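Chain A, query sequence.
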Amino acid sequence: MARNVRRGRRDEPDIPGLERLDSRAIDLARDLFRRFRRKAELKYEFERIIGHGSWGFTIKMKVNDGDDAGPSLLPRKVKRFVLKRALTEGAQANLRRELEFLQQMQGSMNIQQLYHVEGEPTAGTISWLRGPSLVSEWIENGLIQDLLGRVADWNQPLPNRILWRLFLCFVRMLVAMAWPGVPLHNAVLPQPGPSGNRPPKSRILHGDFNIQNVMIGEFDQFDHNLVPIIKLIDFGGASELPDDQSPESAAKANMYYVGEMMLSLIGGGSAKYGSANMLVSVGGGTSLIRSHARDLDGLNPTYKAPQPVITAHRAKMDNLDGDLRNLVIRCLAVHIDDRPELEELAQEVERNVRGKQQEHYADKQYYNNESDVAIRRIAGELMCNAKT
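Chain A, predicted structure.
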Protein backbone atom coordinates (compact mmCIF):
# COMPACT_ATOMS: atom_id res chain seq x y z
CA MET A 1 0.00 0.00 0.00
CA ALA A 2 1.09 3.57 -0.48
CA ARG A 3 3.11 5.13 2.28
CA ASN A 4 3.33 8.77 3.41
CA VAL A 5 0.04 8.51 5.39
CA ARG A 6 -0.33 11.07 8.14
CA ARG A 7 -0.84 9.43 11.52
CA GLY A 8 -4.55 9.45 12.33
CA ARG A 9 -5.56 10.59 8.82
CA ARG A 10 -5.32 7.55 6.56
CA ASP A 11 -6.40 9.37 3.37
CA GLU A 12 -4.13 12.39 3.71
CA PRO A 13 -0.75 12.20 1.96
CA ASP A 14 2.33 13.64 3.61
CA ILE A 15 4.50 14.36 0.57
CA PRO A 16 7.41 16.81 0.80
CA GLY A 17 6.68 19.69 -1.54
CA LEU A 18 2.89 19.24 -1.49
CA GLU A 19 2.46 22.54 0.32
CA ARG A 20 3.84 24.41 -2.72
CA LEU A 21 0.99 23.29 -4.97
CA ASP A 22 -2.19 25.25 -5.56
CA SER A 23 -5.51 23.89 -4.29
CA ARG A 24 -6.44 22.18 -7.56
CA ALA A 25 -3.11 20.39 -7.76
CA ILE A 26 -3.34 19.36 -4.10
CA ASP A 27 -6.75 17.80 -4.76
CA LEU A 28 -5.30 15.88 -7.72
CA ALA A 29 -2.34 14.71 -5.61
CA ARG A 30 -4.67 13.51 -2.86
CA ASP A 31 -6.81 11.60 -5.37
CA LEU A 32 -3.65 10.10 -6.85
CA PHE A 33 -2.48 9.01 -3.40
CA ARG A 34 -5.81 7.30 -2.61
CA ARG A 35 -5.75 5.41 -5.88
CA PHE A 36 -2.26 4.13 -5.18
CA ARG A 37 -3.33 3.07 -1.68
CA ARG A 38 -5.99 0.82 -3.16
CA LYS A 39 -3.42 -1.09 -5.23
CA ALA A 40 -1.93 -3.82 -3.04
CA GLU A 41 0.38 -5.56 -5.47
CA LEU A 42 3.20 -3.03 -5.06
CA LYS A 43 4.29 -0.85 -2.19
CA TYR A 44 4.67 2.74 -3.36
CA GLU A 45 6.15 5.68 -1.56
CA PHE A 46 5.53 9.25 -2.69
CA GLU A 47 9.00 10.61 -1.99
CA ARG A 48 8.82 14.21 -3.13
CA ILE A 49 7.24 16.73 -5.50
CA ILE A 50 10.13 17.52 -7.86
CA GLY A 51 8.39 19.86 -10.30
CA HIS A 52 5.19 21.85 -10.44
CA GLY A 53 3.46 24.71 -12.20
CA SER A 54 0.14 25.77 -13.66
CA TRP A 55 0.39 22.72 -15.97
CA GLY A 56 0.51 20.13 -13.16
CA PHE A 57 3.21 18.39 -11.13
CA THR A 58 5.87 15.68 -11.13
CA ILE A 59 6.43 13.24 -8.27
CA LYS A 60 9.49 11.17 -7.44
CA MET A 61 8.16 7.70 -6.60
CA LYS A 62 9.78 4.82 -4.74
CA VAL A 63 8.91 1.14 -5.21
CA ASN A 64 9.80 -1.14 -2.32
CA ASP A 65 10.08 -4.65 -3.76
CA GLY A 66 9.52 -7.60 -1.47
CA ASP A 67 7.35 -7.78 1.60
CA ASP A 68 7.55 -6.85 5.25
CA ALA A 69 7.01 -10.42 6.50
CA GLY A 70 10.29 -10.59 8.36
CA PRO A 71 13.98 -9.71 8.44
CA SER A 72 16.17 -10.43 5.47
CA LEU A 73 19.91 -10.94 5.24
CA LEU A 74 19.89 -9.27 1.81
CA PRO A 75 19.41 -5.54 1.29
CA ARG A 76 16.00 -4.79 -0.18
CA LYS A 77 16.18 -3.64 -3.77
CA VAL A 78 14.87 -0.10 -4.22
CA LYS A 79 13.48 1.18 -7.50
CA ARG A 80 12.37 4.69 -8.33
CA PHE A 81 10.42 6.30 -11.12
CA VAL A 82 8.94 9.67 -12.02
CA LEU A 83 5.21 10.24 -12.35
CA LYS A 84 3.98 13.30 -14.22
CA ARG A 85 0.37 14.46 -14.04
CA ALA A 86 -1.35 17.33 -15.86
CA LEU A 87 -4.08 19.70 -14.71
CA THR A 88 -5.30 21.48 -17.82
CA GLU A 89 -6.51 20.17 -21.18
CA GLY A 90 -3.54 21.80 -22.89
CA ALA A 91 -1.10 20.19 -20.45
CA GLN A 92 -2.79 16.82 -20.90
CA ALA A 93 -2.34 17.14 -24.67
CA ASN A 94 1.36 17.92 -24.11
CA LEU A 95 1.65 14.86 -21.86
CA ARG A 96 0.14 12.60 -24.52
CA ARG A 97 2.50 14.12 -27.10
CA GLU A 98 5.48 13.56 -24.83
CA LEU A 99 4.51 9.92 -24.35
CA GLU A 100 4.22 9.43 -28.12
CA PHE A 101 7.67 10.86 -28.79
CA LEU A 102 9.29 8.91 -25.96
CA GLN A 103 7.70 5.70 -27.20
CA GLN A 104 9.43 6.27 -30.54
CA MET A 105 12.81 6.62 -28.83
CA GLN A 106 12.73 3.68 -26.45
CA GLY A 107 16.12 2.05 -26.32
CA SER A 108 18.01 5.30 -27.03
CA MET A 109 20.53 5.49 -24.20
CA ASN A 110 20.67 9.30 -24.02
CA ILE A 111 16.90 9.83 -23.99
CA GLN A 112 14.91 9.46 -20.78
CA GLN A 113 13.29 6.03 -20.89
CA LEU A 114 9.74 5.10 -19.99
CA TYR A 115 9.29 3.05 -16.83
CA HIS A 116 7.25 -0.15 -16.88
CA VAL A 117 5.04 -0.40 -13.81
CA GLU A 118 4.48 -4.03 -12.89
CA GLY A 119 1.17 -5.33 -14.14
CA GLU A 120 0.76 -2.71 -16.86
CA PRO A 121 0.60 -3.81 -20.52
CA THR A 122 2.97 -1.08 -21.72
CA ALA A 123 5.70 1.13 -20.31
CA GLY A 124 5.05 4.78 -19.58
CA THR A 125 1.45 4.68 -18.35
CA ILE A 126 -0.72 3.50 -15.47
CA SER A 127 -4.08 2.31 -16.74
CA TRP A 128 -5.95 2.59 -13.45
CA LEU A 129 -5.36 6.34 -13.10
CA ARG A 130 -7.88 8.74 -14.56
CA GLY A 131 -6.51 10.95 -17.32
CA PRO A 132 -3.08 10.81 -18.94
CA SER A 133 0.02 10.04 -16.91
CA LEU A 134 3.64 9.80 -17.88
CA VAL A 135 5.79 7.29 -16.02
CA SER A 136 9.52 7.52 -16.72
CA GLU A 137 12.83 6.41 -15.28
CA TRP A 138 14.36 8.25 -12.35
CA ILE A 139 17.68 9.89 -13.30
CA GLU A 140 19.87 10.23 -10.26
CA ASN A 141 22.17 13.24 -10.40
CA GLY A 142 20.28 16.40 -11.26
CA LEU A 143 20.45 18.78 -14.20
CA ILE A 144 23.19 20.18 -16.41
CA GLN A 145 22.08 23.51 -14.95
CA ASP A 146 23.20 22.26 -11.52
CA LEU A 147 26.52 21.11 -12.96
CA LEU A 148 27.21 24.60 -14.33
CA GLY A 149 26.81 26.06 -10.86
CA ARG A 150 29.28 23.57 -9.40
CA VAL A 151 31.77 24.19 -12.22
CA ALA A 152 31.59 27.94 -11.54
CA ASP A 153 32.39 27.30 -7.87
CA TRP A 154 35.23 24.95 -8.85
CA ASN A 155 36.81 27.84 -10.79
CA GLN A 156 38.70 25.72 -13.33
CA PRO A 157 37.75 24.80 -16.89
CA LEU A 158 36.20 21.39 -17.36
CA PRO A 159 38.82 19.03 -18.81
CA ASN A 160 38.65 18.74 -22.59
CA ARG A 161 38.20 14.99 -22.35
CA ILE A 162 35.11 15.48 -20.17
CA LEU A 163 33.76 18.06 -22.63
CA TRP A 164 34.24 15.68 -25.56
CA ARG A 165 32.34 12.92 -23.76
CA LEU A 166 29.47 15.22 -22.88
CA PHE A 167 29.44 16.40 -26.50
CA LEU A 168 29.14 12.77 -27.64
CA CYS A 169 26.14 12.27 -25.33
CA PHE A 170 24.54 15.37 -26.87
CA VAL A 171 25.24 14.01 -30.35
CA ARG A 172 23.56 10.73 -29.43
CA MET A 173 20.48 12.76 -28.41
CA LEU A 174 20.47 14.38 -31.85
CA VAL A 175 20.83 10.98 -33.51
CA ALA A 176 17.99 9.53 -31.42
CA MET A 177 15.67 12.33 -32.57
CA ALA A 178 16.84 12.14 -36.19
CA TRP A 179 16.41 8.35 -36.40
CA PRO A 180 13.87 7.40 -33.70
CA GLY A 181 13.59 3.68 -33.17
CA VAL A 182 16.41 2.79 -35.55
CA PRO A 183 18.72 0.21 -33.92
CA LEU A 184 22.30 1.47 -33.56
CA HIS A 185 23.96 -1.74 -32.32
CA ASN A 186 26.35 0.28 -30.10
CA ALA A 187 27.32 2.57 -33.00
CA VAL A 188 26.85 6.34 -32.88
CA LEU A 189 25.12 6.48 -36.29
CA PRO A 190 22.74 4.04 -38.01
CA GLN A 191 24.52 1.73 -40.38
CA PRO A 192 23.98 2.23 -44.13
CA GLY A 193 21.67 -0.29 -45.80
CA PRO A 194 22.40 -2.40 -48.90
CA SER A 195 21.97 0.71 -51.06
CA GLY A 196 24.76 2.44 -49.14
CA ASN A 197 22.38 4.98 -47.62
CA ARG A 198 21.28 5.43 -44.03
CA PRO A 199 17.54 5.44 -43.23
CA PRO A 200 15.80 8.79 -43.84
CA LYS A 201 15.89 11.26 -40.97
CA SER A 202 12.81 12.37 -39.04
CA ARG A 203 11.68 15.98 -38.72
CA ILE A 204 11.49 15.96 -34.91
CA LEU A 205 12.19 19.21 -33.05
CA HIS A 206 12.58 18.94 -29.30
CA GLY A 207 11.24 22.44 -28.69
CA ASP A 208 12.82 23.01 -25.27
CA PHE A 209 16.38 21.70 -25.56
CA ASN A 210 18.32 23.43 -22.77
CA ILE A 211 20.27 22.98 -19.53
CA GLN A 212 17.05 22.49 -17.54
CA ASN A 213 16.02 19.50 -19.66
CA VAL A 214 19.23 17.47 -19.69
CA MET A 215 19.81 15.27 -16.66
CA ILE A 216 22.90 13.55 -15.31
CA GLY A 217 22.80 9.80 -14.82
CA GLU A 218 25.43 7.43 -13.52
CA PHE A 219 28.73 5.86 -14.50
CA ASP A 220 28.67 2.49 -16.26
CA GLN A 221 31.28 -0.04 -17.40
CA PHE A 222 31.10 0.88 -21.07
CA ASP A 223 30.99 4.28 -22.79
CA HIS A 224 30.41 6.08 -19.48
CA ASN A 225 33.14 4.58 -17.35
CA LEU A 226 34.93 7.95 -17.06
CA VAL A 227 32.04 10.44 -17.28
CA PRO A 228 28.41 9.75 -16.28
CA ILE A 229 25.77 9.51 -18.95
CA ILE A 230 23.50 12.50 -19.59
CA LYS A 231 19.92 12.18 -20.86
CA LEU A 232 17.42 14.44 -22.59
CA ILE A 233 14.00 14.81 -20.93
CA ASP A 234 10.71 16.70 -21.40
CA PHE A 235 9.32 16.20 -24.89
CA GLY A 236 6.06 17.99 -24.04
CA GLY A 237 6.88 20.79 -26.46
CA ALA A 238 8.22 18.54 -29.22
CA SER A 239 6.88 18.77 -32.77
CA GLU A 240 7.69 17.75 -36.32
CA LEU A 241 8.55 20.05 -39.19
CA PRO A 242 6.08 20.04 -42.11
CA ASP A 243 6.80 17.61 -44.93
CA ASP A 244 7.87 20.44 -47.23
CA GLN A 245 10.87 21.22 -44.99
CA SER A 246 14.10 19.26 -45.01
CA PRO A 247 14.73 16.72 -42.23
CA GLU A 248 18.27 18.13 -42.08
CA SER A 249 16.73 21.46 -41.00
CA ALA A 250 15.29 19.75 -37.92
CA ALA A 251 18.61 18.09 -37.06
CA LYS A 252 20.48 21.38 -37.44
CA ALA A 253 17.89 23.29 -35.43
CA ASN A 254 18.30 20.86 -32.53
CA MET A 255 22.08 21.04 -33.05
CA TYR A 256 22.10 24.77 -32.35
CA TYR A 257 20.92 24.16 -28.78
CA VAL A 258 23.64 21.56 -28.28
CA GLY A 259 26.07 24.32 -29.27
CA GLU A 260 24.56 26.62 -26.65
CA MET A 261 24.96 24.04 -23.90
CA MET A 262 28.50 23.17 -24.94
CA LEU A 263 29.38 26.88 -24.91
CA SER A 264 28.10 27.10 -21.33
CA LEU A 265 30.01 23.99 -20.24
CA ILE A 266 33.20 25.36 -21.77
CA GLY A 267 32.67 28.55 -19.78
CA GLY A 268 32.71 30.42 -23.06
CA GLY A 269 30.10 33.06 -22.34
CA SER A 270 26.66 33.25 -23.92
CA ALA A 271 25.20 32.71 -27.39
CA LYS A 272 22.41 35.20 -26.72
CA TYR A 273 24.26 38.51 -27.13
CA GLY A 274 25.16 38.89 -30.75
CA SER A 275 27.33 37.13 -33.29
CA ALA A 276 30.68 37.66 -34.98
CA ASN A 277 32.65 36.46 -37.96
CA MET A 278 34.91 33.64 -36.77
CA LEU A 279 37.65 31.61 -38.46
CA VAL A 280 37.17 27.85 -38.29
CA SER A 281 38.88 24.82 -39.79
CA VAL A 282 36.62 22.88 -42.17
CA GLY A 283 37.71 19.99 -44.38
CA GLY A 284 41.41 20.76 -44.14
CA GLY A 285 40.98 24.45 -44.93
CA THR A 286 39.73 27.54 -43.09
CA SER A 287 36.42 29.33 -43.45
CA LEU A 288 34.98 32.53 -42.06
CA ILE A 289 31.50 32.00 -40.68
CA ARG A 290 29.18 34.13 -38.60
CA SER A 291 28.49 32.46 -35.27
CA HIS A 292 26.90 33.10 -31.90
CA ALA A 293 29.95 31.54 -30.23
CA ARG A 294 31.77 34.87 -30.41
CA ASP A 295 32.82 34.73 -26.75
CA LEU A 296 35.18 31.85 -27.52
CA ASP A 297 37.46 34.46 -29.07
CA GLY A 298 37.20 36.84 -26.10
CA LEU A 299 34.37 38.23 -24.02
CA ASN A 300 31.96 40.55 -25.79
CA PRO A 301 33.02 44.15 -24.96
CA THR A 302 29.37 45.05 -24.34
CA TYR A 303 29.55 43.01 -21.10
CA LYS A 304 32.00 45.59 -19.69
CA ALA A 305 33.59 42.82 -17.65
CA PRO A 306 36.40 43.80 -15.25
CA GLN A 307 39.93 42.87 -16.25
CA PRO A 308 40.29 39.92 -13.80
CA VAL A 309 37.19 38.32 -15.36
CA ILE A 310 38.54 38.90 -18.87
CA THR A 311 41.89 37.38 -17.90
CA ALA A 312 40.29 34.31 -16.29
CA HIS A 313 38.09 33.82 -19.36
CA ARG A 314 41.12 34.02 -21.64
CA ALA A 315 42.89 31.34 -19.59
CA LYS A 316 39.90 29.01 -20.03
CA MET A 317 39.80 29.61 -23.77
CA ASP A 318 43.54 29.00 -24.07
CA ASN A 319 43.01 25.62 -22.43
CA LEU A 320 40.29 24.63 -24.92
CA ASP A 321 40.91 21.99 -27.59
CA GLY A 322 40.96 23.76 -30.97
CA ASP A 323 38.92 20.99 -32.63
CA LEU A 324 36.25 21.38 -29.96
CA ARG A 325 36.22 25.14 -30.50
CA ASN A 326 35.70 24.69 -34.25
CA LEU A 327 32.74 22.35 -33.86
CA VAL A 328 30.97 24.50 -31.25
CA ILE A 329 31.39 27.58 -33.46
CA ARG A 330 29.88 25.70 -36.39
CA CYS A 331 26.96 24.35 -34.32
CA LEU A 332 26.16 27.95 -33.36
CA ALA A 333 26.47 29.31 -36.90
CA VAL A 334 23.91 32.00 -37.69
CA HIS A 335 23.20 30.49 -41.11
CA ILE A 336 21.92 26.95 -40.91
CA ASP A 337 23.92 25.87 -43.97
CA ASP A 338 27.14 26.68 -42.07
CA ARG A 339 26.31 24.10 -39.40
CA PRO A 340 27.78 20.65 -39.95
CA GLU A 341 25.75 17.74 -41.24
CA LEU A 342 24.73 15.54 -38.33
CA GLU A 343 26.73 12.64 -39.75
CA GLU A 344 29.91 14.73 -39.90
CA LEU A 345 29.38 16.08 -36.38
CA ALA A 346 28.83 12.59 -34.98
CA GLN A 347 31.89 11.15 -36.68
CA GLU A 348 34.14 14.03 -35.62
CA VAL A 349 33.04 14.00 -31.98
CA GLU A 350 33.37 10.22 -31.74
CA ARG A 351 36.82 10.36 -33.35
CA ASN A 352 38.01 12.86 -30.75
CA VAL A 353 36.54 10.91 -27.84
CA ARG A 354 38.17 7.68 -28.96
CA GLY A 355 41.46 9.13 -30.13
CA LYS A 356 42.56 11.81 -27.68
CA GLN A 357 44.38 10.89 -24.50
CA GLN A 358 46.02 13.07 -21.85
CA GLU A 359 49.20 13.41 -23.95
CA HIS A 360 47.30 15.41 -26.56
CA TYR A 361 47.00 18.26 -24.03
CA ALA A 362 50.63 18.38 -22.90
CA ASP A 363 50.87 22.09 -23.80
CA LYS A 364 47.75 23.09 -21.84
CA GLN A 365 47.78 24.73 -18.41
CA TYR A 366 45.40 22.12 -16.95
CA TYR A 367 47.15 19.11 -18.49
CA ASN A 368 47.07 17.23 -15.15
CA ASN A 369 43.26 17.23 -15.25
CA GLU A 370 43.18 15.25 -18.51
CA SER A 371 44.26 11.78 -17.29
CA ASP A 372 41.73 8.96 -16.96
CA VAL A 373 42.08 9.02 -13.17
CA ALA A 374 41.64 12.78 -13.02
CA ILE A 375 38.60 13.03 -15.27
CA ARG A 376 36.88 10.17 -13.45
CA ARG A 377 37.51 11.92 -10.12
CA ILE A 378 36.47 15.38 -11.40
CA ALA A 379 33.35 14.03 -13.09
CA GLY A 380 32.38 12.20 -9.91
CA GLU A 381 32.88 15.27 -7.74
CA LEU A 382 31.07 17.70 -10.05
CA MET A 383 28.36 15.55 -11.62
CA CYS A 384 27.29 13.01 -9.01
CA ASN A 385 25.58 13.04 -5.62
CA ALA A 386 23.24 15.90 -6.48
CA LYS A 387 20.48 16.73 -4.04
CA THR A 388 17.56 15.36 -6.03
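The mean pLDDT is 90. The first strand starts at residue 5 and ends at 6.
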